[in-house]
Model the fold of this input.
Amino acid sequence: MAATDLNTVRSTIEKRLKTELANAPIIPIIFSNEEFTPLGTDSYVQCLVSFGSGEITSQGDQTNANTLVVGLLTLNVFTEQGIGSGSNFTICKRIRDLYNRVTVTDVIFDAVVGPEILAQPPEGKFVTQMRITFETYEEL
Done:
């Protein structure tokens, strides 16, 4: 079997978020390496997928081994500042329900960490962050 296509894993993660946040109320999403200019008081979510080190989880040669590929999904939720945390936490709840301890297309999500309030938000924004580790196995 071939090595895992990391773009397929990334796409699986992002597709869930796109589908959920396309429902009312619609919330724009910023993905890695995309230009985005926030509009005034609009809410939006920044989605960052990164991959860490892997580890061999079974003994075997190069053609008969399993490798655990691990990653981190970081989600920054931006809402209007000065109106409380309710609207921000409502968005976070929608996102937590998508990823909290579920398996989707061979991507295994761990428990969600957060939302944690960021201390240095951009001017005019209230920002929380959630982090979710995930893993997938590849058979070589």
Summary: Residues 6-139 form a domain with the STM4215-like fold (CATH 3.30.2000.20). The chain has a mean pLDDT of 85.
